[in-house]
Amino acid sequence: MLIAPRRASAHKTFRFQRTSPPLGHPLSSLVVL
Question: Which residues form the domain of 15?
Fold first, then answer.
């Protein structure tokens, strides 16, 4: 997942953030930063 491109990662995290809380996903926090 980390190796994947930033665009794809951001898109996936954005979708996950809406479905799940950002606190539940550490990856989301990294993307937000």
Answer: 1-33
Token pair 């953030």 is at which residue?
Answer: 17
> Count of CB atoms within 10 A of residue 24's CB?
10
Tokens 């926090």 map to which residue? Answer: 29
When divided into structural domains, the chain yields a total of 1
Cβ pair 32, 18 in contact under 8 A: no
| Model pTM score | 0.17
| Interval 1-33: pLDDT, tens | 555 455 556 556 555 555 555 555 566 555 555
How far is the C-alpha of 6 from the C-alpha of 32, rounded, in Å?
12
